[in-house]
Amino acid sequence: MSPSVPLQEMIRAIRSARTQCEERGVIQRECAAIRAQFRQADNGGRSHNLAKLLYVHMLGYPAHFGQMECVRMIASPRYSEKRVGYLGAMMLLDEKQDASLLITNSIKNDLSHSNQYVQSLALCTLACMGSAEMCRDLAPEIDRLLRASNSYIKKKAALCAVHIVRKVHELGELFAPAARSLLAEKNHGVLHGAVVLITELCERNPETLERFRKTVPDLVQIMKGLVISGYSPEHDVAGVSDPFLQVRILRLLRILGRNNEAASDAMNDLLAQVATNTDSTKTVGNAVLYETVLTVLDIKSESGLRVLAVNILGRFLLNNDRNIRYIAMTSLQRIVGTDHNAVQRHRGTIVDCLKDQDASVKRRALELSLALVSATNIRSMMKELLLFLSSCPLELRSQAASGIFNAAERYAPSQRWHIDTILHVLTTAGGDVRDETVPNLIQLITNTSELHCYTVHKLYRALLSDISQQSLVQVACWCIGEYGDLLLRGECQETEPVQVTEDDVLDALETVLQSHMSAPATRGFALTATMKLSTRITDNVDRIRSIVSIYGSCIDVELQQRAVEYNALFKKYDHMRAAVLERMPVIEKNSPGHTNGESTREAVKEVQPAKVKQAETLLPQQPANQVCDLLDLLGGSEEPLQSNPAVGSTVPVLPISTSSTAGGDLLDLLGGLEPTPLTPAPTVTVYEKSGVTLTLSREKQSDSGLTVTLTASNSTDSDISSFTLQAAVPKSVQLHMKAPSGDSLPARGAAKVTQMVVLSNPNKVNLKMRIRISYTSQGSAFQDTVQVDSFPEH
Questions:
Q1: What is the pLDDT of residue 495?
Q2: What are the strands, taking DSSP E only, across 126-239?
Q3: Cβ within 8 Å of residue 570, ≥6 positions away
Q4: Which CATH class is domain 683-788?
Q5: Going by C-beta distance under 8 Å and a sequence separation of 6 or more, which residues neighbour residue 533?
Q6: What value does the CA radius of gyration of the chain take, rounded to a whole number of Å?
Q7: What's the pLDDT tens digit per position in 330-383?
Q8: Torsional class of 457: left (φ above 0), alpha (ψ -120 to 50), beta (otherwise)
Q9: Which helix (H) or strand (E) holds 87?
Q10: How far is CA 167 from the centre of its chain?
Q11: What does the alpha-carbon distance between residue 530 and residue 513 come to, in Å, rounded to a whole number?
Q12: CB burial class (10 A; 0-12, 13-18, 19+) of residue 720?
């Protein structure tokens, strides 16, 4: 191929290459020819060669050797060479390369050129790749061009000034007077550039924002002219006059009217006019309406105008375009807290969006539906949400179940309805619920003594029909163990009377113990329930003894330990069995060691995370004159004891006053534990911002490492999703972050997210940790970083 082939022939040769190797060969030969011609002092085809090199660059091949040629061509007096030279500079140069500084003087000269098109080339190049140093040097020239008489140059200069303000914030004051004068222009291109420049200035300087609030009447007049103007072929887009300028003006009005009543009042009539006169059947009309809605909701607008904005979003929900429905729900979610009643009017449409095929629309509809639940609509909304839960995608089940639990806890019309709702969720999506669901439900059941019979009958029937939902099976086993006597009586007035025998109940528990679907924790619940039934039935105690003895050699260590302890109760401590296995007392909601029925891992480290186990007794110190009903059977003493947790359910904190002999017997039963008092883990708050609080507690420390737990909570009125924690430590420290307990934080501190971090510090350097917090709230993503320079001491 000849070195001087035209650009079109080179493109044709490259496209006709059959393999990539052949294509590289063509390009390498052409690049070699271009290099050779660049070295020639008198080369008449420089622009032709640089154009070919730019095409090679567009294909992804190296073309850096053409940078200096760009600099030479920019300095050329010929317009054809300047044009290609400036284009090459924008493509091959950036502000990080020293070669870019060489064109500063050429750009300055061209900004004063008599030809407007040469000035335009210089303005475009500066706006594309101008560095901070170039911007400082050329800012006075740009300010001069903003005051020029040529509209073509002024619109280019305005956009170039935007780039300069973004690069060097303090230069904004230089352009403010000229930007103000540009609003008097009639040319739409100049107006567009002026509005963009003023928006940038207002966003970066509060003082400039106050100064430009005086321009609100001018902007209102410009906007009114666009809304009521007739057909203009130069600016009309699908029946809307210059929608690009309208959107820019609305965004600027939103910034100027935010937190300012005077500016907001001046634009209320205009916003109402735009909202009612804009055609919503076309995409451009919807774009203008959407910006109008955002402006209305962001400024101090009248209540009637806000209702109009919400109604526009309601119309968007009926649009066939999924993108429009998505942004409508995103906007409604932001204002559901402040304009709840207005959003409630569109509840039916929002619920219908749960049936949409698009996963993103479904997720937004779910979040908004959960936010719309209130005391007045709890029954109807919960019916729709439960229907959605039964058919929703797997990735949304956890979020849906969590939202239903929070709504039921906050607005439940009755305790029975609350229990029925949670059991429905467990039956439908028991494998996708959060870990704290089991202890929360157990606490709810213990506090509703009048529904014990109804609950145990309902859970027994659920257990017979399905043992695959682990959370449901755990709660069912716990209730059967606690209230098995009520189940055997068959006298429940709330449900149809069912005659249940002792063998039937034990068969159901044995099925759970032997099922391959049962998790180790679930088997622990079933074994403890079986043991508890030994004090609630009379004819099958030997069968229970046989079941328990079988698991004394179980491969699961914890289950084996429980079985051995229960065997000891049957043999050596049979006289204590009835007292040890008596019914659990009512669990107080705010009792020490519990929050909303959740077992606190900080208080007892041996409890499995977020799993509540039956017959688990936490025994911190209490005043000596208080006597525990259970341990009172063992006599009185002043020695505080701590029992090892048994598999089953959480017990509220009980004070201990026992005799030394009885206490020794009890400790002997549990494996000879030394009596040690429980001390809470030291905790410090490392982050508290926007309602999100993160605390750090020291769990244990060794000579070479440290284990800490990060606990996050949410005190705002809206749920937080996609919550993640990331940590970084010095290079000499090894970091291991275990799996978090969840990724969502319900509103008002309904639940917490915990994550354990193990730090290995063999060199014993000063420990520091940087934590990045990321989450999504009300459709917006947030990210923040905090540094921990000191850790709590024991």
A1: 62
A2: 236-237
A3: 534, 545, 548, 577
A4: mainly beta
A5: 480, 481, 484, 502, 505, 506, 509, 544
A6: 37
A7: 999 888 888 888 888 888 999 999 988 888 999 999 999 999 998 999 999 999
A8: alpha
A9: helix 79-92
A10: 31
A11: 10
A12: buried
Residue 155: what pLDDT?
Answer: 92
pLDDT reading at 717 higher than 90: no
Output the six-digit token pair for 39: 């070295």
Most confident of the following: 66-75, 476-485, 598-607 = 476-485
Contact 163, 199 (CB under 8 A): no
Phi, psi of 721, deg, nearest 5: -120, 170
Element (H, E) at 346: none
Q: How far is CA 31 from the centre of its chain?
A: 50
CB atoms within 10 A of CB 514: 11
Could you tell me which residues are beta bridge partners of residue 727?
771
Contacts of 695 (CB under 8 A, 6+ apart): 683, 684, 685, 686, 710, 711, 712, 713
For residues 67 and 708, give the distance between their C-alpha atoms in angstroms, rounded to a whole number: 54
pLDDT of 680 strictly over 80? no
Residues 669-695, mean pLDDT to the nearest whole number = 69
Provide the CB-side half-sphere exposure for 336 (13 A, CA).
29
Q: What amino acid occupies position 722? A: S
Confidence of residue 529 (pLDDT cuts 50, 70, 90): very high
Nearest to 767 by CA among 786, 788, 785, 794: 788
Query: What are the beta bridge partners of residue 759?
Result: 706, 735
Domain boundaries, the chain: 449-581, 683-788
Name the pTM for this structure: 0.63
Q: Which residues pair with 728 in a beta bridge?
A: 770
Average pLDDT over residues 279-297: 88
pLDDT digits (tens, 9 = 90+) for 82-101: 899 999 888 888 777 777 77
Q: Angle at CA 646, nearest 5°, toward 645 and 651?
A: 70
Q: Which two tokens stand for residue 674?
A: 């030394």
Backbone φ and ψ of 191, nearest 5°: -60, -45
Residue range 623-673, pLDDT digits in tens? 434 333 433 333 333 333 333 333 333 333 333 333 334 444 444 444 444
Average pLDDT of span 168-172: 88
Read off the amino acid at residue 534: S
The string of DSSP letters for 495-562 reads S------HHHHHHHHHHHHH-TT--HHHHHHHHHHHHHHTTT-SS-HHHHHHHHHHGGG-SSHHHHHH
DSSP string, 586-641: P--TT-TTEETTEEPTTT-TTSPTT---TTB-------TT---TTGGGG---S---
Strand ranges, E, within 224-292: 236-237, 240-241
Q: Distance (Å, rounded) from C-alpha 195 to C-alpha 192? A: 5
DSSP, residue by residue, 644-657: PPPSS-B-------
- Amino acid letter at 437? T
CB atoms within 10 A of CB 306: 18
Chain centre distance of CA 760: 30
Q: Which tokens hold the place of 508?
A: 């159901």
Nearest to 402 by CA among 416, 419, 422: 422
